[in-house]
Amino acid sequence: MNTASKHKRNRLIALSFVSILMLLVYGPLAQWFVAADRVVFDQIAASVPNTALSDGFIVSIDPQRSSGPEILAQYGRIIEVLQSNSVKRIVLASPPEISADAELPGWAALLSARIPVFVPTRHRFADVAKYHGFVQVRPDNDRVLRQSALWQLNNGVYSPSLPLAIAFNSSIGGMANRLSSPDDAIFLSNYVELPRITATQLLSGTFDTGPLYGATVFVDSDPAFVGAAAVLPSGQLVTVSEIVATLLSDVENQRTISAPIGIQAMKWLIPALLAIVAVLFLPDRNRREIAMLTATVVISLLLIEAVLLLGFQLRMDLGRPILIFVGAALLCSWLVIDISKASGDAFKKGSDFLSAGRLEPAFAEFRRCSPDETVAAVMYKLASAFEHQAKQERADAVLEWMKRTHGPIADRSSTTKKPSGPPQRMGRYIIERRIGRGAMGAVYLAKDPRINRAVALKAIPIEKEFEDEELKEARLRFYREAESAGRLTHPNIITVFDAGEDKGLAYIAMEFMPGIALKHYTDPKKLLAPKRALELCAATADGLDYAHNQGVIHRDIKPANLLYNPKDGSVKISDFGVARMTDNNKTKTGIVLGTPMYMSPEQLSAEDLTGLSDLFSLGVTLYELLVGEVPFKASNIAVLMTKITTEDPAPVSGRRAGIPPSVDAVLAKALAKRPEDRFSCGAEMAIALRNCARVS
Fold it and tell me: Which sequence spans correspond to the domains of the chain?
């Protein structure tokens, strides 16, 4: 085939591919490709400057402390107090549901009083309220709320949304003409937090109500974070009241993000132009040229979308045009697919098989993974599991596979200088050097001579602590807890391989992770960036959530037990279960195990613990990582216990620049004295921390 024919063939292939891709992206399967548009919009919209609603407040009723009738009664008392203090307007964005056959409360007459009270159109309150509008919270299928309709057709008549009805009542000049089309929709970006007042504070009679004069006050029973109805493109969890407040602020400040007809037309013209460029210029170029041209086009499109969104508040979907051009570039450069997702899926499946005792399927899945430290650690555990089932040939096969694929990883830690003299042993492990010491024993860098793999060996002098019957019980507990910790397989948890005894020492063989304990970064002169500290603690919360779901509690979360690898940004929890291996809750002398300054109130009281105790300790750890000082300090244990159980720490946002106020709210929840007032699980805390990291 000559050069001209080859060029023609390549262009025909590119044209066919781009045509099919455009039909798929904008045709019947369009809903499968809108993710590209959403990713681009979310990244830019999160940076759109926003302002809080002027003189806005949220009065929140705690639904956990009141029954349904009590909540409804509190609404009436709150409205009376607000009207007596001459607020500008009251918004009930998500009042409690009232059945059709139930009577309205007596205070419902207040809804038509002099001071306007706005309620949802389809609520029973709309029968007596003078002002109402519909509330629409319809997140996309990825659970992110990106837009809200401004008008809705009800019985042949278009009705305004609740934020639009509120704005119309204020007679904002020129706004009615701009937002009068029934096809208008408003796009959301981010939420600027409004001050929250609890119903208890407002109704106490001692609260200073002066700032409420002339204010817009939202009343709801949806607590922050927990009562969230949706997630914004910025990643913030928001309640219905916060959504309405954000939309109202956008409308009244005339900064609504919209997509007029001209912009809609460009959504079709730009992909066609890009398809022509791709067909004419991409085929037959070398990979470097294709990469440079693709990068130029993608960056230009992102800049256009950013300028339109940030400068003119215009929403243009350029994610799909970018997808089309990148797809053509991938075809023309013969790039291979990214195998990272396949590797991650294989690791998860393999871990599930290993936990279920299905070793052969686990081996098959792990061999599909890309070689790294975490895969090597679980393969080592797999070999031990084969040995325990008396399948030495399969164990040898796993070890041989590790030597072939993880040789550099296995030998990486062996380049350190060994101590002079003959090596000491513990079990079958050869000790090279000590790398740490804790309250319960020393930690050594050791080597398993069978596969020349480095391990971390924690030695506990169990025979020095216990005698006779106590020693027998301690041994049983030691192996039981080691077995529980050994079941944990998670990227943010140090893997436990083996446990045994030698020369009066109980030892645990664990994955060796090159890195630094986060204790190093609690020095005020060496603090991590707030965003990095939040991300590391979020990853730790993920690991704790996994462990708690497996029925394992750590009991000693602190910076010294969190290992951080600055090279790849990973963090892993160490010493899982060790705080309970030598005794249940106390040592022989009656001292509660763990580090007191990081312990929860219930742990100090020697009560039965749940995973929520670990979340309290993680909150203390985050506090120290952010400001270089623990939240509770004292000269003796008695005073320290009093502070932990009774005092609230100072907010961190006022102690260090760059920490958003939302971190104060997360820490306050994590450090709540009562477990039931904290985050319900590690996953919930991780979401809150990552939301804070996005705005820091």
Answer: 3-44+260-333, 56-252, 340-414, 416-695
List, for residues 480-539, the tens digit of each pLDDT value.
777 777 788 888 998 888 888 887 778 888 888 888 899 999 999 999 999 999 999 999
**Catalytic-role residue among 42, 222, 250, 556:** 556
Give the tens place of pLDDT for each residue, 457-481.
Answer: 888 776 666 656 666 676 777 777 7
pLDDT band at 670 (very low <50, low <70, confident <90, very high): very high
State the Cα angle at 566 between 498 and 511, rounded to 5°: 5
Rounded CA-CA distance 174/165 in Å is 15
Q: Bridge partners of 218?
A: 58, 91
Residue whose C-alpha is closest to residue 352's, from 339, 341, 364, 370: 364
Contact 346, 36 (CB under 8 A): no
Cα separation of 492 and 351, whole Å?
Answer: 14
pLDDT above 50 for 681: yes
Query: Among 370, 541, 383, which residue's Cα sits nearest to residue 453?
Result: 383
Residues 430-434: contacts with CB within 8 Å, 24+ apart? Answer: 431/457
Query: DSSP letter at 146?
Result: -
Pairing of strands 117-120, 516-517: unpaired
Say if pTM beats, i.e. exceeds, 0.70: no
Separation of alpha carbons 124 and 129, rounded Å: 9
The phi and psi torsions of 244 (rounded to 5 degrees) equal -65, -40
* CA nearest neighbour of 426 among 451, 413, 403, 445: 445
Q: Are 611 and 682 in contact (CB under 8 A)?
A: yes
Structure token pair of residue 277 = 């460029």
Q: Is 462 helix (H, G, I), strand (E, B) or coil?
A: helix
Gap between the terminal Cα atoms of the chain: 58
Name the phi and psi angles at 458, rounded to 5: -100, 125
- CA 414 vs. chain centroid, Å, equals 36
Give start and end residues of each alpha helix (H) in 94-174. Answer: 162-169
- Distance, in Å, from the CA atom of 62 to the CA atom of 277, rounded to the nearest integer, reads 58
Active site residue 183: no
Question: What is the Cα 165 distance to its own chain's centre?
Answer: 35
What is the spatial distance between Cα 51 and Cα 59, in angstroms, rounded to a whole number?
A: 20
Considering only CA atoms, which of 618, 593, 629 is closest in space to residue 603? 593
What are the tokens at 476? 């049983």
Which residue did the predictor score with more confidence, 504 or 146?
146
Tally Cβ neighbours within 10 Å of residue 476: 10
Question: CA-to-CA distance for 589 and 595, rounded, in angstroms?
Answer: 15
3-state secondary structure of 457: strand
- Tracing tokens 């990272």 back to the chain, one arrives at 340
From the list 682, 404, 689, 391, the residue with the least C-alpha distance to 543 is 682
User: Tokens at residue 417, please?
Assistant: 């200088």
Asked if 161 and 133 touch (Cβ cutoff 8 Å), the reply is yes
CATH 2.60.220.30 at 416-695, yes or no: no
Residue with tokens 């913030």: 236
Task: Give one DSSP letter per residue of 405-442, joined into a string.
Answer: HSHHHHHGGGGSPPPSSSPEEETTEEEEEEEEEETTEE
Tokens 């994610």 -> residue: 319
Q: Which residues pair with 517 in a beta bridge?
A: 563
- Residues comprising the chain, all counted: 696
* DSSP characters over 363-413: HHHHTTSPP-HHHHHHHHHHHHHHHHTT-HHHHHHHHHHHHHHSHHHHHGG
Query: What number does CATH give the domain 340-414?
Result: 1.25.40
Both structure tokens of 315: 């929403």
Q: What tokens were used for 602?
A: 């219930």
Instruction: Give the mean model confidence (pLDDT) for residues 236-254.
Output: 87
CA dist., res. 576 & res. 553, Å (int):
8
φ, ψ at 231 (rounded to 5°): -115, 135
CA–CA gap between residue 45 and residue 306 (Å, rounded): 8
Q: 496 near 482, Cβ under 8 Å?
A: yes
